[in-house]
Amino acid sequence: CPLSAAANLRPGAEQKVVFITARVHPGETPSSFVCQGIIDFLVSHHPIAKVLRDHLVFKIAPMLNPDGVYLGNYRCSLMGFDLNRHWANPSPWAHPTLHGVKELIIHMYNNPKINLEFYIDIHAHSTMMNGFMYGNIFEDEERFQRQAVFPKLLCQNAEDFSYSSTSFNRDAVKAGTGRRFLGGLLNDTSYCYTLEVSFYSYILGGAAPAVPYTEEAYMKLGRNVARTFLDYYRLNSLVEGPLAPTPKTR
Fold first, then answer.
1. How far is C-alpha 152 from the chain's CA centre?
2. pLDDT in tens, 170-210
3. 175 found inside a domain
4. Domain Peptidase M14 spans what residues (predicted)?
5. pLDDT for 238
6. Which phi and psi angles does 125 have, rounded to 5°?
7. Domain CATH for 157
8. What confidence score (pLDDT) does residue 103 get?
9. Are 78 and 67 in contact (CB under 8 A)?
10. If DSSP states are collapsed to H, E and C, what string results for 62-113?
11. What count of other Cβ atoms lies within 10 Å of the Cβ of residue 183?
């Protein structure tokens, strides 16, 4: 079951949900460390984490391809499927984890008391540096612009995240991915992203030398992803009242 974290939600109130998945490609081990950083931050005593738990519901599936991970596969499941190409019609027999997560997401989507506002699928990239995102393209220009807000805010919080490497596309080859499928399924208040992080290094800007990623650096990116939700919802007035400034996560 995905991990759920929520506290002090008013009975009967609309639930705003952030759904995060990782490790659909078993060889992309950095995604697990980024996801671990998100989880560790959200369940911590950090004041930002408490505000997020008070206002949002986080559902996290940290490993969508456990059999592939167990076998040491790079991209596929036990049965040889690239699960990130089967979101449109996952089989409960051949793609059980994907099927279960999709069923849960559709159940939430059909519940009028739940608003699934974010879906983020965490991956690792073998050729590009830094962290960056892929988003979707929409005919509605306002929706397209709103989709760019979260990665722009994340760029301010995470020195290793590159907005210039972030791109928005609707490549037909990626139609079966979580980002593409859910971006077409969910309503215009939902934002679906693929979060990518380099397997090897990041550049802080200019002609600076590349900095090798470490497990701790991946987890730090995860912590900065989590804290960016507060900036996003402050901007959109969900969180009211001042909160004392807190230093960036270490």
1. 14
2. 776 677 788 888 888 888 889 999 999 999 999 987 667 89
3. yes
4. 1-233
5. 61
6. -115, 135
7. 3.40.630.10
8. 96
9. yes
10. CCCCHHHHHHCCCCCCCCCCCHHHCCCCCCCCCCHHHHHHHHHHHHHHCCCC
11. 20
Percent of the chain with pLDDT over 90: 71
Determine the pLDDT at residue 139.
77
With tokens 């159940």, the residue in question is: 107
| Amino acid in the structure at residue 100 | G
Alpha carbon distance 14, 20 (integer Å): 19
Tell me the whole-structure pTM to 2 decimals: 0.89
d(CA 94, CA 79): 7
Quote the domain boundaries for residue 131.
Answer: 2-240
Which residues, given as ranges, of the chain have pLDDT below 70? 1-12, 172-173, 206-207, 237-250
Q: Is 196 marked active-site?
A: yes
Q: What are phi and psi of 72, to 5 degrees?
A: 80, 20
- Is 247 among the domain residues? no
Q: Which of 196, 215, 216, 240 is catalytic?
A: 196
Task: Provide the pLDDT for residue 244.
Answer: 42
